Amino acid sequence: MSSKAVNKSFKDRGTITKIYLKNFTSYNEVVFTPGRNLNLVTGPNGTGKSTLVAAIALGLGGNVKTMGKSGYIKQYIKRGEDTAVIEIELRDTPTKVIKINRTFTENKSVWKLNNESVSEARIAEVTDDLNIQIGNLCQFLPQDRVKAFSEMDPKQLLLNTEQSVGDPKLYEYHQNLIQYRREQKQLEEDIAQRNSMLDLHTQKYQALEETVSGIKERKVIKKRIMALGQKRAWIVYDQSRKSLTQAKDKSDTVARKIKQLKQTLKPTVELKAEKEIQIRKLKLSIDNYATKINKYRSDYKKIIEQLENQHAKISEIRHEVKHDIEVENRRESTITAAETQKNKLCNDLRIITEELGTVESINEKSNDLSRSLQKQRNIVGALAEEMTVLRQEIDKNNRSVASLQHEHRQLSDVASKRLNLLKSRNQDAWKGVIWLRENIHKFSSPVHEPMMLNIQVKNEEYAKYFEGMIATRDLYAFVCEDKNDMNLLLTHLREEQNLVVNVVHSDPHEQYSSRPEIPIESIRRYGFQEYLSSLIEAPPTIMKYLITMYSIHNIPIGTEVVEDNIENIPAKLQCYLSPNNIYSVKVSRYTGDKSIRTVRLPKPYLLSMVVDAGKIRQIESTIKDYERRQNDLLTQLRPIEQKHRDAEEENTKLRNAKNQCQLDLQQVQGLNSRINLAIQKLQQLETERKNIEDIKAAGKERIMNVIKKQMLMYTKCNSLADEALKVNIESETVSMQLTVLQKELANELEETKIIRENLRVAEIEHHDLEKQLQPLKRETERLYDDAMRLTDGANPQDTARFKPFKTAFGKLPGTIEEIDEALQTAQARVYCLDDHHGGEDILRDYERTKEYVEKLKQEIETLSIKLEVNEQKIEEIRDIWLPLLQELVETINGNFSKYFTSLGCVGEISLGHGENPMDFEEYEIKIRVKFRDDDDLKDFTKERQSGGERSVTTAIYMISLQELSRVPFRCVDEINQAMDAVNERRVFDLIVKMTSKADSAQYFLLTPKLLPNLKYTEQVRVHIVFNGPYVVPWNRFNTIDYCDGITADRNRK
């Protein structure tokens, strides 16, 4: 026997030997060491018993849903921590354990198998090999899923039982039977469908056979018509081809005549071309001579213009000589006037110097003023800088105030945003608000706009609580303090305007209590923080309505801790809230059983826009601080501005004085400049003195030079005239030569006129023949293409391809007339036959139907074989599975009946099925119980039995499976809920008895309470969980001293 087989036969394989937890829900760190048989886990509510069950489920591959809860695994991480650890040791062999570790954070789990990192799928393989079924309620029954056990339908109960006990192949057989039965139904359905299709298509095939014979005869005649058309096309083409050949021959004859005539004319043409070349050359020479003559004429004209210019220049020289003589005659009086002007300017300079000072003294005074002016500018600049700094501070202060005021307006503008939200959500209510604001004077007492506009949630995260608790119609409701006002408002809005609105009445003067029935301090340990009424601000009238109608002063809200303490919260709290859920509590007046209804909190829409009053107050305080700062800055700025104005005035005075100095300096310097110019003018007048005879001699010399230039120009004119005459004579000679050649050419052309006329006529004839040839050629090509198309691209030259057509043509008439007659006969025959529209489609449909009928027959035969094989498999497996299952159910029934009888009740387990025993999905385990003598046996359902009866039934069924178990352990959490003391004791004794056997599965039984004087065996290990924030730490708790103290207390009593 292999070691693997030995391992699997080891009866303790898969039992839990150790559980280690760190930062898991309420535990910082804990080690749990269970016993081999019954492990009784007890302790007060909320101390962490169910945490152990959750650790087993999550540590062996389960999820939050396995625990019957919603949410995510992150909720099992201890508050304030980021990571939690679950480590479970499972027995593998007598000397070896399997260690599974799961370390998880908010959104990630890391798995280890024997300290090696593995995937979650590998963990699933290991638990499957150990036959650990976390999701099977017959093995693993958490506290939140005890109710789910009774809600299992009989079919689910059978499947879970097969997985949990009996032959390991029992569940596999059942699943195979279900699958084979589904396949069997599908095969039967497929065969029936195909038989139906076969009948339908066989009838169609038989109907088509009668039509096909006529279609085939018509097809043969149409084929002959096609052949006749093909032969006719080739005959017509051949006739057209012959006509084309004849026309082409005629065109070629005329072309040869044209060629012969051109040959005759060739010498004359060559001589004509030669003379035409000579004529072109002579014409070109004549043009060149004309160009030269034009150029001589242009040059002659330019010289004449230059001669005229020289005549004008002589006149100009004579005028200049006359002018220079007159200037010299006036020069002495000009020098006297210039001297007088200079003396006057010198006298003016002396007077101004005495009055204003010299240039040096004025410059010195200007420099002193510049230094004073720079000093004053520095003072002005320093004051301006101080002013700029203060003004920047003021501007910055103003911007801060504006920003804060904008933020204040935005925060305070929640009312308009909510009004817009109301408009988008409830048009009628919005219209009512607009009307009310315009007509508020019509009412005697205050009328409040819809509550959603008046309720201010202190924090937007609280909005979801109020929208979850307060009906939407009330959030849209108007609130009247006077009933007459309410009737008046309804009349105007509903009756007159047909608006669908809600209006409620709330009298603020009526007495009511807003104090909670249970002080919040009394329930803080369950995770509660505030009552709903303390989370909003609203007008007293609206607050009174919410308290009296919804008791918001008695509805507490809390943290996630609330969800972990649901069973411990006082039943007096009929409604409370966690961050995600609304919990409504009802207590049965007959049994005292508490039922809790959980509803998910909605996403807020209407109240999520809130006024942050604290933020507004903070902003207003900051604005006041800025305003005080503004006043301080303005107080500092005013004296500096006055100093700056005074400094600017002094600066202006200095600048004016400096400018006056500059004006004085410019005046003195201007006189100096004018004196210098007068001196220079006198010097120039003296320097420019000339002798009158010298002026006359220079003018005469200049005139003689001009006359010499004129003589040269006259000589050039005579030369140009001679050249022009010579060129003109040569041009006349060439013109005469041109006239002679042109006459000779005209005579030669006259001699060849008849030949050229014959050539012209021949060319016109050839052109007409070619023009007539083109349509004939196109028609022949068209006829050829038609014939080729009709014979599928084969022509007579392609012997191999055309052979079938040639053979067919040999059997047909030979002339166009005979072919046309044969075509008429064939077409008349086709007309006489029935015209089956879409005949080709009918033939194809006939062939397709024939093939499809054969295909259906083959498919039916194949499916029938498969069905036979399937039925054989079902019969083989059923013959194995059903006896095993019946035996198992009888065994469970024996145990169940026996244990129920020991409780003084009656119970039975039976195997049931649907109307057809072959529908294996309909097989089920029925539980029927009777708890009272006057009752009949009734099916076990969640509706028929009480909570205590369901708990007893569940416990007995689990015990009945115990000795048949093939799972390594079972886990049941608080199964004794709602049991009476007698039944609880009997159930406990049965569990102890069954789990004390050597071959029983390991058992975990969790309960918050134990009856006194229960019987325990050596195989029972009791684990007391006493965990909590106020409990003595484990390292300071002495078990022996604690037990001695209890004994002493009992002895004293």
List the helices and strands and how they pair.
Elements: H1 3-9, E1 16-24, E2 27-32, E3 38-42, H2 49-59, E4 84-93, E5 96-104, E6 109-113, E7 116-118, H3 120-129, E8 140-141, H4 146-151, H5 154-164, H6 169-356, H7 359-412, H8 414-425, H9 427-438, E9 447-448, H10 451-454, E10 456-457, H11 463-469, H12 472-475, E11 478-480, H13 483-496, E12 503-505, E13 528-531, E14 536-537, H14 540-550, E15 556-558, H15 561-564, E16 575-577, E17 581-587, E18 594-600, H16 613-687, H17 692-751, H18 753-790, H19 799-810, H20 816-832, H21 839-902, E19 906-912, E20 924-930, E21 938-939, H22 947-962, E22 969-973, H23 981-995, E23 1002-1007, E24 1020-1024, H24 1039-1052
Parallel strand pairs: 3-23, 3-24, 8-22, 11-12, 22-23
Antiparallel strand pairs: 1-2, 1-4, 4-5, 5-6, 6-7, 9-11, 10-14, 13-15, 16-17, 17-18, 19-20, 20-21
Helix pairs in contact: 6-16, 6-17, 6-18, 6-20, 6-21, 7-16, 8-9, 21-22, 22-23
Radius of gyration: 64 Å
β-strand amount: 5-15%
Shape: flat
Kindly state the number of beta strands.
24
Summarize model confidence as the mean pLDDT.
82
Biggest sheet, in brief? 6 strands, antiparallel
State the CATH class of one domain.
Alpha Beta
Spans with pLDDT under 50 lasting ≥5 residues?
1-6
Strand order of the largest sheet: 2-1-4-5-6-7
Q: Which class of secondary structure composition applies to the elements?
A: alpha+beta
CATH architecture of one domain: 3-Layer(aba) Sandwich
